[in-house]
Known about the structure:
Elements: H1 4-9, E1 11-14, E2 54-57, E3 61-63, E4 72-78, E5 84-91, E6 93-95, E7 101-103, E8 115-118, E9 121-124, E10 129-136, E11 145-155, E12 164-178, E13 186-192, E14 196-197, E15 202-210, E16 216-218, E17 225-228, E18 231-234, E19 238-240, E20 245-252, E21 258-260, E22 263-267, E23 273-277, E24 280-282, H2 285-325
Parallel strand pairs: 1-12, 3-12, 14-24
Antiparallel strand pairs: 2-4, 4-10, 5-9, 5-11, 6-7, 8-10, 11-12, 13-15, 15-20, 16-19, 17-18, 17-22, 21-24, 22-23
Amino acid sequence: MADPFRRTAAFTASVLLVGVPASLGQGSGAQASDSPRPAAPSTSYRPAQSEFSLTVSPTRLAIGPADLAKVAEILVVNRGDKAVTVNVLKRNFTGGSDGALIFQQQAPYSASAWVTVTPSTFTVAPGAAQTVSATVKIPAAPEPGDHQVALVFLVPAGKTTANVRINRGIGAPVYITVPGPTDNTAELSDLHAPAFMMWGHTEVTAKVHNAGTVHRDFRNASPLTVKSAGHTSAFPDFTVMRGATRDISAVWNPPLLCICHPTVSLVNANGAIDTVTVRVIVFPLHLLGIGIIAGLAIWLGARWWRRRYRAAVATAATQLKPIVGGGSA
């Protein structure tokens, strides 16, 4: 009889490298510039000297109303030293607080049934590439705004005698903006920073919630920033998809001494400005301590020198007395 533990342990673990923060572009997802057309396939690509090295370009697609009838393309490049067979899967998803894609079969605003990919299965030789085409057909009377699906480029695990087999892949989100009235409103909250610090840089964290109907990008020429006392620090590039909330953080470098109020602001398409701020006291206690110690050392040194000087003067005066008052009769 087979060992039940061994039978249970023989499973396939699918690891999908889909922690791709929805980024690229700026403004609403209706901008076609978010999805640059991939470069024309080259006859060969320099290998990465690795058994597995698969890349896709662009890393996401943002298909606006003007591009719904166009064919989008993604270039898949195999820089590994072995041929790989790739299966292109469609997965509905929601956005995690860290920007990762969380696959959910019943995710809201799903568009997996709208997209057709060609080819859906292919083999790429080492140093070669394959162009995958994606076409969109929206249903009748869909809700305006963003609908999304992830294209997962999955390389199944090869044959092995091991109990655990790992599938490797890359997830590329596709944002499809349905024509109609849209709203890009985003809201800031929970700005946090240390209430007191002595020196150096510190981490500032906040939450950004997308209360609109299209994704919001904060990157390139218009990143989200934290400002205070003439110092500005940018948050790393990120995207907040429709209905999602992102946790963000930035490194802020305050001045040496201040009562600062780091502030984060964003402007929505309707002109409304959302702002959050927090108070941080920066006081270099270590420098104050060094100053006190140095001052004390100087005072003690001066005191010691004055006592030595007075003692030397008294000794000299004592030695001069016989000379001044002495002599023969």
